């Protein structure tokens, strides 16, 4: 038996559930941070989220400037408008963070994700999986007599839709890279 007991009728809450009901609806935001590429930076950024009970829906990190030793961290998170503002302000105060951009509010942006999906099936299910893959422009990158591994890139909603259609056809494992995003234009 767990040492932690929850009162009858109570439920587990995140920081979002404890908000003021007048604070606004939950919104998904894509944040891009330019940081020094050094040990411990990612841990500090992630620590900000975990320490305050904020959730990360997607996280990608890669070095973008070898000479300047800078990396880009792209985070998709959900919260009320006030929580999102608080996250951006707190990210901006972390010492190795140089820039914080909210791509959701700064204008049009492009978001893409890569997914690998293993789909098991034979007969009609196999044929249907290939037909749907063609419609979604998914590439077969591995094939056996019992399964395919599909590679698909696109907006997260496209990845979700493809996975939903593959579930009844035998979707086994799925690996996703997380969102990579850039603002459009200038």
UniProtKB/TrEMBL annotation:
InterPro entries named in the record: Acetalactate_synth_ssu, Acetolactate_synth/TF_NikR_C, Acetolactate_synth_ssu_C, ACT-like_dom_sf, ACT_dom, AHAS_ACT, AHAS_small-like_ACT
Official protein name in the record: Acetolactate synthase small subunit
Q: Which organism is it from?
A: Pseudohalocynthiibacter aestuariivivens
EC number(s) per UniProt?
Answer: 2.2.1.6
Quaternary context: Dimer of large and small chains.
Enzyme class per UniProt: transferase
GO molecular function annotations of the record: acetolactate synthase activity
The chain positions of domain ACT read 30-105
Please describe what this protein does.
Catalyzes the conversion of 2 pyruvate molecules into acetolactate in the first common step of the biosynthetic pathway of the branched-amino acids such as leucine, isoleucine, and valine.
């Amino acid at each position: 038996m767990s040492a932690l007991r929850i009162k009858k009728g109570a439920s587990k809450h995140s920081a979002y559930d404890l908000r003021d009901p007048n604070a606004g609806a939950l919104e998904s935001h894509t944040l891009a941070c330019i940081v020094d590429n050094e040990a411990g930076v990612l841990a500090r950024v992630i620590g900000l989220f975990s320490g305050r009970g904020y959730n990360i829906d997607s996280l990608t990190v890669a070095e973008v400037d070898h000479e300047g030793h800078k990396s880009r961290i792209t985070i998709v998170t959900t919260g009320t408008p006030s929580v999102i503002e608080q996250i951006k302000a707190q990210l901006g105060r972390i010492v190795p963070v140089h820039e914080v951009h909210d791509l959701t509010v700064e204008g049009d942006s492009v978001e893409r994700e890569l997914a690998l999906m293993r789909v098991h099936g034979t007969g009609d299910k196999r044929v249907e999986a290939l037909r749907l893959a063609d419609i979604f422009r998914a590439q077969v990158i591995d094939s056996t007599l019992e399964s395919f591994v599909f590679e698909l890139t696109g907006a997260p909603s496209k990845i979700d839709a493809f996975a939903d259609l593959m579930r009844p056809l035998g979707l086994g494992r799925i690996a996703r890279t997380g969102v990579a995003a850039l603002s459009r234009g200038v």
